[in-house]
Amino acid sequence: MYTIKDVALKAGLSQATVSRVINNHPYVSEDKKQAVQRAMEELGYVPNSSARRLRNIKTKKVAVLISRIVNPFFSQLVDAMEQKAAKHGYQLILCNTRINPEKELEYFELLQSKQVDGIILAAAENKWEAIAPFTRYGTVIYCNEYDPDATVTRVRLDQVEGGYIGTKHLLDKGHRKIGYCQGNDSSVSVNRRRGYLKAVTEAGIEPNPEWMFKDIFTIDNGREIFRRIAAMDDRPTAFFTGSDEVAAGMIKEAQLNGWCVPDDLAVVGFDDQPIATLMDPQFTTINQFTSDIGEKAMEVMLEIIEGKRENKAEDILLPLKLIERQST
C-alpha cells in the first residue's frame, strides 16, 4: 500500500504540499492540485479520511477468493457460504485467483473501492504483510487457508491432524512404504505434509523424498504420479494423496494398468467429495465437513460486518474425520 510520501515522490512535490491538497488548503496552485490528483489516481492512494468514510458505507456484498474454480471442494464451500449470506440479505461475489498472487491483490481493489463489505480468503497466495493494509477498507478473514501472522479471524481445520490421521491409517494397515502428494506451499498443503511426516517418523520410518510429490492438484496429476511410481524399482505400497481428485486419478490409472486397489496400492484421499463414493472401489478419505466450514466462515464475516464480533487474531477450529472405505 502506498503512503503520502509515495504520492509526493510521484508528483514531484513535497509531502507538505500533498497534505495541503488532500485537506483542500486554499493556497495551492491548480497545477500542483492536478499533479497530486494524477499521482493519487495512478497509485490508487486513498487518504485516511476517505478510507474511513468508505468503510462506513454498507454494500451488503461479500467477496470470496478461491484458487481453482474447477475444484469441487470450492464448489461445496462457496455454495454453503452463499446460502448463509442470502438468508441475511447479502450477496456473494466469487473471485477465482487461479493461484496467481497478483490477481489476488487485484481483487482486493473491490474492498478498497467499497464494492464489497468484506473479503473471505478461502485461498491465499500472498503473505499477510501484503494483505494487511487492505483491512483499513473493510473486513478480511481467512477460511480454510490462513497465514499464521494474520491479525484477523481464521476459520479453519487442524490440517496437521488431517495429514497425520490419514497416514497413521495406512501405517495401521501394515504399510511401511507410504508416498505423499501435496499441492503448493499454502498453509493447508504444508501442514498436511507436516502431519504425514509426523506419522511416519513416529513409526521409525525415514521419509523417502522420491515418494513425495509437490504441485499436485488434479485427476490428471494423479494419473501421472501413478505412472511415475509404477516405473520405480523401489516403489510405495500406499499413498496419502492429500486430495480426492488426485486419489481418483491415481486409482483409475492403476486399474488401467492391471493393478488392484488396495492389494497392489492402497490410496487415501482428502475432502470426502462425491467422487470418493462414485469410484469402484470407493476410497478412504478425510471428511473436513466442507459445508460447515463455509457456513461458519460466512457467519463470522457477517457478525464482524454488523458489529457483533471483533475481528481479532483468533483460530476457529472445526472437526475432521477419517472415512474408511475399500481403497485401503
From TrEMBL:
InterPro entries: HTH_LacI, LacI/GalR-like_sensor, Lambda_DNA-bd_dom_sf, Peripla_BP_I. One of its GO terms (molecular function) is DNA binding. Coiled coil: none annotated. PROSITE patterns: HTH_LACI_2. Keywords: DNA-binding, Transcription, Transcription regulation. Residues 2-56 form the HTH lacI-type domain. It comes from the Bacteria. This is LacI family DNA-binding transcriptional regulator. The lineage of its organism: Bacteria, Bacillati, Bacillota, Bacilli, Bacillales.
